[in-house]
Amino acid sequence: MAEIYVIVGAGAAGVAAAERIRMIKKDAMILMLSVDTYSHSRCMLHKFLGGERDENGISFTADDFFEKNEIYWGKGQTVKGLEPANHRIVLENGYQPYDKLLIATGAVFGIPPIPGFRTASNVYGFRDLQDAQKIDAAIKAKDAKQVFVVGSGLVGLDVTTALLERGIKVTVAEMADRIMPLQTDATAAAAYQELFEAHGADFRLGIGASDSVVSEQNEITAVVLSNGESVPCDFVVCAAGVRPNIAWLEGSGLAVERGITVDEYLKTSAPDVYAAGDVTGLSGIWPNAMDQGRIAAMNMCGMPLAYEDRYCLKNTSNFYGLTMLTIGDINKIEDGAQVITKEDRRCYKKAILKNGVLQAILIQGDISGTGHWQYLIKNQIDLTELLKKKDIFSLSYMDFYQLDETGEYQYA
Questions:
Q1: What is the C-alpha to C-alpha distance for residues 304 and 327, in angstroms, rounded to an integer?
Q2: Tens-of-pLDDT digits for all 412 residues of the chain?
Q3: DSSP output for 36-84
Q4: Which residues sit opposite 79 in a β-bridge?
Q5: Beta partners for 367?
Q6: How far is CA 54 from CA 44, 177, 229, in A?
Q7: Which of 82, 137, 334, 405 is most enclosed, with most CB atoms within 10 A?
Q8: Closest Cα to residue 387, out of 361, 364, 353?
């Protein structure tokens, strides 16, 4: 009888795992269950909401992916619980047994504890396609003209871009003193803010929401800021944080902290149960989630492989044609650290070094040829001798192509 491999979740980690399992186990039954009805890239949600693409246009799988790989996808399925002792998951209308299980349920958006936000009917997130579809429906139903967005991180600016594309007035509140506070410094943030304002966005920086005005229909009609200002809106989008989607595992006995606890092989505390992607809390980066899915799949198939790349301080962005790469904590400047900046009409660069080792880098503008920066930061390569000969920003892959097996590089 064929082994049953069950994957809960149809995001990056789940799909990558399913593909890898099929490569290894030609005769296994692979069953994927998810609330999703389309495979979609979170990075493309703004293109759907902005009207540039439909649901199929933001898919990250080929049209025949599931059929070609003989993967059964149970769409629109809500998983209610897990019974590790019985090797089965609990569905709304029964049970699904498994021989090996991968939990790849991702993360869900959080709603801040602001009066009215958690009870009103017109407060949305922007985490997955269902969220985007709900916002799209709200815009059409109300002929929405003004929206309040909480948070100016990557997700907040993505949804703002889409809403502006549809001619909606957007007010964005951010507790920090600049937009994209985790990825930018003051200079880089100002460049993006100028672009967004030119397209109609209105920012409230260093200010949080403290209250709301709720109608008799249980809808927020205005958000009250901490400075007393009242901002009218047709609905609210919360884009100020996410948490691993683990509520459905309550009572399962599975070890969890912030996310599902896994060992180096992405195995959970339960036999034959693995986890990958955002649900583990290891990394919120798309490529890392796919790597975790593939590695978890190999371990599920009896091919032991440790997951080692847990570095997640990397982000790229592209708003209105201005691209940016940030690796490391660009806002953490320790005692003795050296901050180097370079700016011209086309590009802004910032590097933080300590004791000759690169700690973080930000490049806004042309980010081509930047693949070596992550290697240098992750592996804490000492650049002291090399920087006696070259400027930090003139370094390229060619400077390190002679790295030996110890991680030391040989000068050309």
A1: 30
A2: 789 999 999 999 999 999 999 999 999 999 999 998 898 988 899 999 999 999 999 999 999 999 999 999 999 999 999 999 999 999 999 999 999 999 999 999 999 999 999 999 999 999 999 999 999 999 999 899 999 999 999 999 999 999 999 999 999 999 999 999 999 999 999 999 999 999 999 999 999 999 999 999 999 999 999 999 999 999 999 998 889 999 999 999 999 998 999 999 999 999 999 999 999 988 767 888 999 999 999 999 999 999 987 666 788 999 999 999 999 999 999 999 999 999 988 899 999 999 999 999 999 999 988 888 988 998 889 999 999 999 999 998 787 766 555 555 454 3
A3: -SS---GGGHHHHHTTSS-TGGG-SS-TTHHHHTTEEEETTPPEEEEEG
A4: 91
A5: none
A6: 10, 35, 37
A7: 82
A8: 353
Nearest one of 155, 181, 179 to 332, comparing CA atoms:
181
Q: What is the DSSP letter of 268?
A: -
Pairing of strands 88-91, 79-83: antiparallel
What are 4's strand-pairing partners?
29
Residue appearing with tokens 């290891």: 282
Contacts of 123 (CB under 8 A, 6+ apart): 111, 117, 220, 235, 236, 237, 238
DSSP 117: T
Closest CA to 220 of 236, 208, 231: 236
As given in the structure block, the two tokens for residue 124 are 């949305």
Exposed / middle / buried, residue 12 (Cβ in 10 Å: 0-12, 13-18, 19+): buried
- Are the C-beta atoms of residues 331 and 313 closer than 8 Å to each other? no
